[in-house]
Amino acid sequence: MSRARDPRSAALRRFGASITIVTVLGHTVLGFEQSYAAPILAVLVAYTAEFTFESTEAWASRRRPRYLGSVGRLLDFFLPAHISGLACAMLLYAGARLMPVVSAAVLATASKYVVRLPVGGRLRHVLNPSNTGIVMVLLLFPWAGVAAQYQFTEWVPGWWRAVVPLVVLVAGTLLNAKLTRKTPLIMAWLAGFALQAAVRAVLTDVALPSALLVMTGAAFVLFTNYMITDPGTTPVRPRNQVVYGLAAAVVYGLLVGLHLGFALFFALAIVGVGRGLILAALALRSVLSAGTAATARPVLVPVGSSAAGPTSDGGQGIMR
Questions:
Q1: 271 or 316: whose pLDDT is higher?
Q2: Cα dist. 91→26, 149, 152, 206 in Å?
Q3: How many angstroms separate the CA atoms of 1 and 69, rounded?
Q4: CA 271, CA 277: separation in Å to the nearest integer?
Q5: Mean pLDDT on 164-176
Q6: Residue-level pLDDT at 119
Q7: Burial of 90 (C-beta count, 10 Å sphere; 0-12/13-18/19+)
Q8: Rounded Cα–Cα distance for residues 128 and 269 (Å)
Q9: CA separation (Å) from 75 to 21, 89, 90?
Q10: What percent of the chain has pLDDT over 70?
Q11: Does residue 82 have a pLDDT over 80?
Q12: Which of 147, 228, 272, 308 gives the lowest tally of CB atoms within 10 Å of its CB?
């Protein structure tokens, strides 16, 4: 399958185009309050970090860097960095200070090279890069925060404010349904979110309409369609997608119940780490099982050779 027809490549390009359009409209029409320099600097830093990490790893492992080849290959290589940089610049707010945004872009890119686990027979990063960068900055810079909900429609007059999340919802739904195939995850996340809101309304003094109102904002729609559905760090099987979405909703409800801020981002990070631990445990079990099976095999010595001498399989005495 060519890269142009690869659904993953197509999804990546749609994601990149979408977040670029939202960023431009946000700073010109919608009402984004971050510095104009934030998205530009974040993207440039993310590009630099991606290029540096990939070049270093390629040199260390003596392989060809992934950015070499056709123009399409180069574009697809830098698109994740482009998306992460713009996402960090859009969702973080640190006033006039740019260091948190720069740090988030670097950490988001670095997480893809540092945290890797066996998935489907090969090493893959398992933590959502943009979310990881944002969460790390929220922990490292206590005075930094996330963008307020109102900035996504601050400059939009009257009832037109309802159009913004609707457009984002339709575009994101079509993208995920056709390319990423994360509809089971989205449905489970939304159902779980509504369920945890109802449970909190019963067990605490929170009003149900207030708990559900979060779902109507443009920020929540963006998170649902473009953050929690990251194709590279979420399950592929529909059943596992449902478990992932429900788990994120449950963790969110627990965090809100404990009065912890930025619950959406921390919930996704916790579920991502939990999935990573499960994948690590499965990989370890597979290695141990393979080692046990190899040890239990009978030792076969070729006719005419010494039992104490080297054999054809490297001196281990096992015919493979």
A1: 271
A2: 11, 10, 10, 26
A3: 16
A4: 10
A5: 85
A6: 82
A7: buried
A8: 8
A9: 17, 21, 22
A10: 89
A11: yes
A12: 308
Q: Where are the beta strands (DSSP E) in 193-315?
A: none
What type of residue sits at position 125?
Answer: H
Does residue 56 contact residue 175 with C-beta atoms inside 8 Å?
Answer: no
Instruction: Determine the Cα angle at 6 with ends 66 and 85, to 5°.
Output: 55
First to last CA, the chain: 34
Structure-block tokens of residue 180: 């990423």
* Identity of the highest mean pLDDT range in 68-72, 102-106, 118-122: 102-106
Would you call 235 helix, strand, or coil by DSSP? coil
- Say yes or no to pLDDT of 226 above 70: yes
pTM, two decimals, is 0.86
- Res. 6 pLDDT band, cuts 50 70 90: low
Residue 30 identity: L
Tell me which residue of 116, 220, 219, 227 sits closest to 182, measured CA to CA: 227
> What is the per-residue burial (b if ≥16 Cβ within 10 Å, else e) of 40-76?
ebbbebbbebbbebbeeeeeeeeeeeebeeeeeeebb
Q: What is the DSSP letter of 36?
A: T
Residues in the chain: 320
Tokens for 254?
């627990």
**54 is written with which tokens?**
């990939």
